[in-house]
Amino acid sequence: MKQNIWEKEYKNVHSLWGFNPNSTLSQYVEMLPENGEVLDIGIGEGRNALFFAKQGYAVEGIDISETAVKRCLELSKEHNLNINAKVQDITSFEIEPNKYSLIILSNVLNFFPDKDIKIIIEKVKNGLIKNGLIKNGLVYINAFDDKEPGRKKAPEKYKQLAEHTL
Ligand SMILES: C[S@@+](CC[C@H](N)C(=O)[O-])C[C@H]1O[C@@H](n2cnc3c(N)ncnc32)[C@H](O)[C@@H]1O
Predict the structure, then answer these.
(1) Helix ranges, the chain (H)
(2) How many angstroms separate the CA atoms of 19 and 50, rounded?
(3) What is the rounded (10 degree) CA torsion for 4, 6, 9, 12?
(4) Does domain 21-157 have CATH number 3.40.50.150?
(5) How far, in Å, is the centroid of ligand 1 from the Cα of 165?
(6) Which of 67, 128, 72, 69 is nearest to 102 (CA)?
(7) Coil, helix or strand at residue 108
(8) Ligand 1: which of 4, 6, 161 to mutate, judged by most atoms within 8 Å of the beta carbon?
(9) Which residues, in sequence order, are bridge partners of residue 83?
(10) CB-defined site of ligand 1, < 6 Å
(11) HEC string of 14-27?
């Protein structure tokens, strides 16, 4: 059901999120070690993943939407990059422990109820590389705020799952 909602969103447009990485996230590059691995959860069409792949990072990503993953893989090929993107649901996806220098959750968690968010965060924490204080992996979380136009319209379009979650 959730998959259908996202498929519809992506199929309606040529590009849902554009091609520029999130501007705050792009500054994380300076904090990452060379040769780090990046996991983008809810990778979408890959705007953030492409950015990190272009900087030389090994990037993996998952998304529940087949269309989004297909677009991301096409873009990756077009730019001669090697993003490993797969169709997977984060609620059942196992994140490999102690692996990633950066895990991205860009505008994803706001679609889950609190109980799922807690489970996802635990998995994410476990997936971050632990190399001592300075080199520990980072997590980037970005969520829509209440002023976001899409967020304002959401109650007309979607069912409420929990407080603040549609
Ligand atoms: C608002 S979009 C953000 C896309 C991308 N992170 C970006 O910032 O451009 C949310 C993404 O989460 C994906 N998504 C939603 N539920 C998911 C789930 N259960 N597992 C994996 N991906 C999911 C959607 O398909 C969609 O691509």
Answers:
(1) 2-11, 23-26, 47-54, 66-78, 114-127, 149-157
(2) 9
(3) -60
(4) yes
(5) 14
(6) 128
(7) coil
(8) 6
(9) none
(10) 2, 6, 17, 42, 44, 47-48, 62-65, 68, 89-91, 106-108, 111
(11) CCCCCCCCCHHHHH
Length of the chain: 166
Res 80 pLDDT > 80: yes
- The residue whose two tokens read 């109650």 is 155
pLDDT band at 89 (very low <50, low <70, confident <90, very high): very high
Q: Could you tell me the pLDDT band of residue 146, with boundaries at 50, 70 and 90?
A: low
Residue nearest to atom 17 of ligand 1 (CA): 64
Sign of dihedral through CA atoms 59, 62, 63, 69?
positive
Nearest to 44 by CA among 82, 18, 80, 12: 18
